Amino acid sequence: MAEEIKLMKGNEAIAHAAIRYGVDGYFGYPITPQSEILETLMVEKPWESTGMVVLQAESEVAAINMVYGGAGTGKRVMTSSSSPGISLKQEGVSYLAGADLPCLIVNVMRGGPGLGTIQPSQADYFQTVKGGGHGDYRLITLAPSSVQEMADFVGLGFDLAFKYNNPAIILADGIIGQMMEKVVLPSQRPRKTEAEIIADSPWATYGKKERKRNVITSLELDPESMEQNNIRFQEKYRRIEENEVRYEEFECEDAEYLLVAFGSSARICQKVVENARAEGIKLGLLRPITLWPFPTKAIQDFANRVKGILSVELNAGQMVEDIRLAVNGKIKVEHFGRLGGIVFTPDEILEALKEKII
Amino acid sequence: MELNEIIKPENLAYDKPRLMNDNPMHYCPGCSHGVIHKLIAEVVDEMGLEDKTIGVSPVGCAVFAYNYIDVDWIEAAHGRAPAVATAIKRLNPDKMVFTYQGDGDLAAIGTAETIHAANRGENIVIVFVNNAIYGMTGGQMAPTTLEGMPTATCPYGRDIALNGYPLKIGNLLAQLEGTCLVTRQSVHTAAAVRKAKKMLRKAFENAMAGKGTSVVEFVSTCSSGWKMTPEKANTWMVDNMFPFYPLGDLKNVE
Hints:
The complex is a heterodimer. By secondary structure, chain A is of the alpha/beta class. Chain A is built from 14 helices and 15 strands. The N and C termini of chain A lie far apart (52 Å). Chain B starts with a helix and ends with a strand. In chain B, strands 2-1-3-4-8-7-9 form a 7-stranded mixed β-sheet, with helices on both faces. In chain B, helix 8 links the parallel strand 7 and strand 8 (213-219). In chain B, helix 2 (33-46) crosses helix 8 and helix 4 crosses helix 5 (111-119). By secondary structure, chain B is of the alpha/beta class. Helix content of chain B is 37%, strand content 18%. The A-B interface holds A 24-25, 27, 53, 55, 57-59, 61-63, 65-70, 72-73, 75, 77, 91-92, 95, 99, 205-209, 213-219 and B 50-54, 56, 63, 66, 70-77, 80, 83-88, 90-92, 95-96, 112-113, 116.
C-alpha cells in the first residue's frame, strides 16, 4: 500500500496506521468510544496481507497480558481501550514496565470515575503520567490532537517504545477518537523478520539458540538487586526526559498570557487564541505533545515571559499541577475545566482566562 | 572392583536431564514440582524442541520454574499465563509454548484466562499442578482444597456452606471443544512418573501438531502446606485426593 489521503475517524486511523507500520499483533476488548479500532482491524483482515495477528480477548486483563507475552518475544504488539478498561489493564502495564518491555497502549478517554459516561474526558492524566499501576514507573505518553496525529503516533509510539524498551501510550479522548478528518496514511512497511528481532531485541524469548536462556520477569526478591533494577529504570526515565520532550507553540512569540492544553482541548484553545487576539489580548497556546516527559523547561521559560498561565483541561485540574511545579510560584497558574463528559466552548475558556488570570 | 571402575558412560542407568540446570531448587522436601520439572525438561529435550520452547511461569511456588528448566521463559502475572501463552503462540506459531500453573493461579484468579484460552483451542500445553493448597503464601485454601481439609484460611477444615465446593476444573476444561487432551496424572511412584511422562509428551506433540489445547493436571503433594512428612503426604494424597480427583484421561482426542 502506498501513501494515501483518506477521510476517517481517529480510531480508524489508529487501526490503519498499525497495519501499515508493520505491527505484529493487536489484542483488544470492545469498549466505547474506541471499539472502531478492533472493528476496523477485523474488517481489514491484516492477517491475510501482512500476517498481523488480531484477537478479541476475553477481557481487558487478558488483552494486556497478551501484549505482555507478545512483547516478551520481541514482537511489535499493541492494545487499546477506554478509561474503565485501561484501569483494568494497570496490573499488566506495571509488569510490562517492570520487565523493560516495549509495546503500545491506546487510551481513548471517557468521563469517569467508575462506569462514568461514554462522552470525552481528559481525567486519566494522573493515571497515565503519574503511574497508574503499582511501583515507580513511567509511560512514554503521546497526546494526539488530530486524526493525523492518531495515525502518526502509532509509529512514533513504537519507535520510542523500542528505543527505550518501555511501554508507550497514546492518550487520546472520545473527541479525537470519534471525529473524522483528512489523514495521510503512510505507505506499507514490512513486519520485522525473526532475524531482525534477534538482532534488535537480543533479550527476547523466541527459543534458546546457541545462547543462554532468556527470561522475561519483573520479579527480584533480593532487595539490593531490586533497588538496582529501580535505579536502572530511573536512569532510563532521565534519558527519556532529556531527549524526548515534544510540544507545539501557537502564537507564542509576543504572548503576555499563555494557555496550556493537550489533545482535543488544544484544538479548542486555538480558537480561543484567535478570539482573544481579535479583542487585543496577546494570548498564546502551548500544546504538550508528550505529557510524560512533560515540557517542564519550556514552561519554565514562559514563566519569565508571560504574566499568567491557564491550564485548560477536560478534568478537575490535573496537568495544572505539573505546570505549577515547573513555574514554581513565579507567576499565576490557574485551571479551567469541564467535567464528566462536557466539552467547553471557546467563549467559556476566554471568560475563565479573563476572570482567573487577566 | 573399585567404584571408579564402575563410573563410565556405558554403565549409566540414570542421569539428570540435560535441560535441568544446577541451580539449587527452592522446593520443599517431598514436593512434586521437582519431578514434574524433570519430566518437562526430558520431553522438551527428547522432542528436540529446546530452540523452539517458551515456558510461561505462574505466580505461586513455581514462579521460579525459570531458574531450573533451561529454556526461554516469560514470568506471568498471577493467573494470566494462558493469556500470555496465547499471544506467544499466535505470534510465533512454530514455537512450543507451555504454561506451568498451580491450583490458585489456574483455577481461582486465572479461571477466565484458563477457560477462554482452552475454549479458543490455543495450541499450547497447560501443566496444572493441583496440590489443593496455596504453597508459596503459606498454606491457604485453594479452589481445589477438599471438603473438611484444614488450611491457614480454613483452619477448621473447608466448610462447603462458607467456601463452596472443591473445583474440578479439569472436568470443566474437558467439556470445551477447544481442548484435545485433558488428563489427570501424579508422580508419587515410579510407575506414575512413567505414565505421566507419556501423557506430557502426548500433550507437547498435540501442541506442535496444532490439535488444540492440552491440559496435564498433576495431583500433587504439598507436605509443608499439608503439615505432613513427605511419606505421609503421599499416602494422604492416595487416600484423600485420588478419590475426589481420580487419575486418568478426562479427554483424549486422537
